[in-house]
Records
---
Amino acid sequence: MKILVVDDVELDRALLSEALRKLGHDVVACADGKSGIKLFQKESPDLVILDVIMPKMDGFECARQIRQLNQTKWIPIIFLSAIAIDEEHVGKGLEAGGDDYLTKPINEVILAAKIKAMQRIADMQLHLIELTRKLRAISSIDVLTGLYNRLEFDHAIKEKVAKANENQHMLALLFVDLDNFKMINDSLGHSAGDALLKEVAERLKICLRKEDVIARLGGDEFAIVLGHVESPYAAEKVAKLVIDTLSPAYYIADQELHVSSSIGIVCYPVAGTNHETLIQNADTAMYHAKQLGRNNYQHFTSELDAKRKQHVALSTGLKFALERNELYLTYQPVFDLKSKKMVSMEALLCWKHPTLGLIPPDIFIPIAEDTGLITPIGRWVFRTACEQSASWYKLGYTDFKISINLSSQQLLQHKLINFIVDILDETQFPSHMLELELTETGMMHNVIASEKMIKAIHDIGIGIVIDDFGVGYSSFLRLKRLPISTLKIDKFFVSGIATDVNDAIIVNALIALARKMNLNVIAEGIETKEHLNFLLENRCPQGQGFFLSKPKTIAEMTDYFKKIYHFK
């Protein structure tokens, strides 16, 4: 061992040094506390022996300063005392960071024994430190990809922000999310999904410098910390590189897969001065990138911050909307375009916020889906629509169908059929008068389970309507295999049929396709006479839109029923 001896009495220092050398140790020695601290820093000894009573700086103070200099590695400290050791000395020694005492004159046998004991403790301490280091390394790594995990990312971003603040330079944080990964995971299985994530991790590594940090936060989300960038443009260049690197095909489980990514970018200190704010804002920017069509990157802006705050406010308000009776349904008729007769109606969910007024469905429905509130809200919609439809049915208005939208989350609930049957039994509403609307995209969340549930719904006599047809993922093979009764052509195409040749061709082709497959067709978004005339000319059987009828309240719908049935 290398041992530092600090003693102001020259003879005592010489005798102790000689005794230690006889025991086979290297010795460095000095006569005062300040010199001892300098020697400690220079020589890095394995053990320190300090005289307690010394001029200017006593042994206790010297021990305190040594402990402050060496907080990561434990070095044993033994105090020397020419007087008997009492409780007061022991207390002071422990408080100062000492581990043991020797009394003068030195007994070489006791000296050897104490040094061996300290050496054993030091060895155990080193082993513990190494074990702790290994455990920290294991706990900091994502087992699947070998990247840092969320815990280590939190440590890294804090350190990088502190360093950027200290050196007054810019850093960047990128949140990377794979587009449509869930669809791949559900269709090919988790093993294929895991293999894809491993390959993505390897590709991400080649995009970065040694000083940058990359972590998998969970699922298909990754974070990249660029410790030092000259400008936001530099971070943008890395985002472009990531998108280009992840784009080429992946060959997994005998399948050729293509994966794009959505990236949110924030820079310190422009978009936040602490790690919590940077993380929050990077997530907001990434979410915005997804909303803009995926496979792109977006910087965080003040406008996005305003949208995020609105999102939080609406999410909070939506939690209480049901119990506060802020949600209600309107009913929009669907007409036979040739006879102008109403054939069905769609139940539409509305939300009147107490301070913000009417919130558009395209704003609050995605929030409900993101927060999981779509399930209780969807159940309320189903029950309410069936109860109201049953009320009209009992009044003698029997020649109509009611269409209710079903989210992908509801579709995958294993007790959905039981819920539907129970509500129909309670309300005594005939199942053949009910239709459930599903989006193409919604059916792609766990394809096998979705198809099984759709067939089960059809088996109890309920019609299946594919909403927003033409903008989702359905294939003709799936249309053929599923018991679908109706296709609704998305209003995006209908809105342009009078002015855009391509929209007109697409709508005409969809009508012809449905006719060949013996499916009913409803054109959504009929807002002008030109829209209606085009659809009539191309033999579209049914339609829905403001030109035909706006959504009606319960009272308005009841009056409408009285009018078309010619009785009160």
---
Amino acid sequence: MTAARHEVVILGGGHNGLTCAAYLARAGVDVCVVEARDSVGGCASTVAALGGARVNICNCDHQLIRSTGVIEELDLELYGLRYLDLDPAQLAVPWAEGDAPWLLFGDVDRTLEALALTHPDQVDGYRRYVADLLPAARLVLEMTAGVPTPLGVARRLARARGRGLGALLKLSRRSAADVLQDYFTSDALLGPVATTGPAVWGLPPQAPGTGLGALGYALRHTHPVGRPVGGSGALTDALAAAAVAAGATIHTNSPVQTIMLDARGRVAGVRLSDETRIDAGTVVSAADPRRTLVELLHAPPARARALVERWRARTTRDGYESKLDAVLATPPRPRRVDPDHLTRLGLTAEQLQHATMVVAPGLDGILAAHRAAAAGHVAQHPLHLANTPSVLDPTVAPADGHVFSLEVLFTPYNLQGGWAATQEPHRWLREFATLMEPGFLESIRRFRLVGPEDYERDFSMPRGYAPSFAGGPLSALLGTDRELTRYTTPIPGLYLTGSGTFPGAGISGAPGRNTARVVLSALR
């Protein structure tokens, strides 16, 4: 059995693990990243597929990472990271026949102008929504930019002069559906923000405590949405390069078998599945928190047993999302878009194709889709996030067409009839085609499905579920589940990071950045 020695070992080379590694290495820490897959990036990566296409594992739109300071602080542009801005960032496409799609811009006034053309009766509600919730959205971003200790949060509230705090408190106590219905009456506006909020957490908007999910539109008005040139994985490639340049070591094809402890119950390193031992006094796990604490820890010390048993008792949630990647001869063109509206907004038909399409039913339809998944079915009209990244970024395109992605919610892990023989992907494409101009189905050259079973097998997501921090800023402030909100555990030297910790899922890098600060403070 071979052995190596490092000061810190990080489990998992997703974007948060790499972010944490880069910050630690730049501070002079001897850090090693071990990644089970043959490449880094996790769900933020971009892979070659479908005969020459560059395909994102998950959605390619990045916004939160552009608000955290990670890009500037780690000088990621020096390592090839470059963003192409999206404006408009989103085209909301209602399932309801006869309801017009509408555009969401980064600028509030342009969004109101677009709404006035398609949904004039919703303009006043959107104006009130922005006035009430934009300060809360800015405050959320401010609070996620550091470790959520009471002192740290107090400082951020002082910088924000408390603006948005009242709205944030109300949001934390309500469901997203209740909040949104204070402002909008049309499913065309209620559905899309619920789709990009609670639905991507695996929850219906009527679920208690999902009020923060109502901030989706407001967040779009805080920082520009963009896509990295070369695909989402250009971010993780730059993070890995920055970490290595600062002295970090990265090992791929290195699944961890055990987190080792010494006789005093302190972290001693990790043992890989090939029996390689890496000695280290600090281990940071960017893996699923439950897997870290229940499966990788053997014989935890007495002071950690209550924590481990609490996690052992938690039910493993099922995955709820699938993704179709396709090569198209021509990009899809949404129906019911008035060319005169585009002209008045100063847009071309190609610029319209840059935006991500959010296809959604109303709130009741989203709830019905969630219930259908619980019964092993996919709703007749699923929730979709669709885009054609190669229109804006030709570097990801194959030689014979365009790259198209269609994310589908809610798709159950235990699909009736099983995933192996299902015809659901064909049905999804047919249903989506009804919202596009003629020719969409005929333009499909080839496609692939990535479903819950694939996420489980290829990305170590139990039952296809991507862990996500379930609490909001207030639970983080109170220190609920300290291993998730303070990144520390009762085992000296063991820390957690990643999407299961505060502030949660999405491409932000905030968990990795925050955890690095905690680890550095302990090491110093």
